[in-house]
Amino acid sequence: MKFFIDTADVEEIKDLASTGMVDGVTTNPSLAAASGKSFLDLIAEICTVVEGPVSAEVTATDFETMMKEAAVLRKIAPNVAIKVPLIPDGLKCCKALSDDGVMVNVTLCFSANQALLAAKAGAAFISPFVGRLDDIAVDGMNLIDEICEVYANYDFSTEVLVASIRHPMHILEAARMGAHVATMPPKTLRQLYKHPLTDKGLEGFLADWAKSGQSILGN
Ligand code: G3P
Fold it and tell me: Is any atom of ligand 1 closer than 6 Å to the C-beta of 129?
């Protein structure tokens, strides 16, 4: 399973990239606006830190303007994935860009039928939002299960990119379902390392080792 981080905070991206766990980055207009940086500079900077796909979202909602925005974004770096909303013009844009060899991430997916449309449009990634479904008392992970089932019935190359992740259980369930990618806030990636028995066990090992008076480095 690939891990992407869902943030426009470049310092966080640098810090987490150094762990070797980051396979890509997703941004959205809300995250980009909150960064306070010029959007094009922001994406260019992220692309210097991470080799994998970096999603940059168009903000137009009509085909012609989306294509113009995509032309600007794709020039930034070869690892830019153009993110488009799951609306008819977004999928038209997805098809045109995919046919031209560009990675497209179709976002704001809330149903398996929408995911089917994105796959038919040649999307590299489909982004179903699990947390926002949970927020309205609909089981977000059930959507991932449905999409994985539907995609497995055909030979679509579209990868299921689980988005709007709020906690580690979303990631575990997505991995059990065989989703290709999870994009998560930096805090959630850090949470994956944590277990109280790991901390307690290490504390015990180090206390016992200190009593021995030895050092592996011989100092
Ligand atoms: O970037 C898309 C998605 O991951 C947004 O998540 O937490 O705003 O629902 P959230």
Answer: yes
Ligand 1 centroid from CA 155, angstroms: 28
- Domain extents for the chain? 2-194
- Please report the DSSP string for 110-175 in residue order: -SHHHHHHHHHTT-SEEEEBHHHHHHTTS-HHHHHHHHHHHHHTTT---EEEEBS--SHHHHHHHH
- Can 75 be counted among the known catalytic residues? no
Catalytic one of 83, 92, 200, 211: 83
Please write the tens of the pLDDT for every residue from 83-97: 999 999 999 999 999
Q: Which CATH architecture has domain 2-194?
A: Alpha-Beta Barrel (3.20)
- How high is the pLDDT of residue 186? 98
